[in-house]
Design a protein that fits this description.
The protein is α/β, with parallel strands linked by helices. The chain has one domain. The protein is built from eight helices and seven strands, in the order ααααααββααβββββ. The strands form two sheets. A five-stranded mixed sheet has the order 3-4-5-6-7, covered by helices on one side. A two-stranded antiparallel ribbon has the order 1-2. Strand 3 and strand 4 form a beta hairpin. The radius of gyration is 17 Å and the shape is globular. It starts with a helix and ends in an 8-residue tail after the last strand. The model has no long low-confidence stretch (mean pLDDT 92).
Length: 210
């Protein structure tokens, strides 16, 4: 469990092996390189757009599992609604954040996501000035690990539906199945436990999915 906690903070990228205390600095340098060089070269973005992309990423890093008010967020960043949705698309393609939709059919650049997450938990610890919300960290980890080889969507009950069938509620060791009660193939991915019990599965074990 201590190793899992360490991974959530500084273990996602391979340069953690030699980075030591400089890990967050190297990670932020990588983020800056992506936003200042890679994205502008692909999407023809100017300097001002890069600054707004950075601001958007920082704003998202400070929020709990985030069901966005697109108009309000666009106003906060100082851009239009359509521009905001494009920026979210660009950051998603750059693997700096993940967007969660109700379904994955017919998704375009201008579709509004149901929730927005940073791509991985290390970004949350490096971008935010404060300790990230633990609920956000847990959901971010789960989404990040399963997106590699599965389809995840936003359900009416619970936090995620995997491959259109398996419902998951994410939480701590005392999390119950109340929010997914009555749903077939429903599970709790629980942080702070080592072994499975009934429909409660340790959160860390989803790190072994690929």
């Amino acid at each position: 469990m201590p190793l899992f906690d360490e991974y959530l903070k500084t273990g996602y990228f391979p340069f953690f092996i030699n980075a030591g205390k400089n890990y967050s600095k190297l990670l932020l340098n990588t983020v800056n390189l992506i936003i200042e060089n890679d994205l502008p070269s692909i999407y023809n973005l100017d300097y001002n757009s890069s600054l707004k992309l950075k601001r958007l990423l920082v704003v998202i890093s400070k929020l709990v599992p985030f069901k966005p008010n697109i108009e309000k967020l666009a106003k906060q960043i100082g851009i239009s609604r359509d521009t905001l949705l494009r920026y979210l698309f660009y950051l998603d393609k750059a693997h700096l954040l993940n967007r969660l939709f109700k379904n994955t059919s017919g998704i375009s650049i201008l579709n509004k996501p149901e929730k927005i997450y940073l791509s991985n938990t290390n970004l949350a610890y490096s971008l935010s000035d404060n300790t990230p919300d633990i609920g956000n960290i847990r959901e971010t980890f789960f989404l990040n690990q399963l997106l590699v080889s599965h389809t995840l969507t936003y359900p009416a009950k619970g936090d995620f539906v995997v491959d259109g069938k398996y419902h998951f509620e994410i939480g701590g060791k005392n999390k119950t199945s109340k929010q997914v009660a009555g749903i077939e193939d429903a599970f709790v991915a629980a942080d702070g436990i080592e072994y499975r019990f009934e429909n409660k599965i340790p959160l860390w074990i989803f790190g072994l999915m690929y």
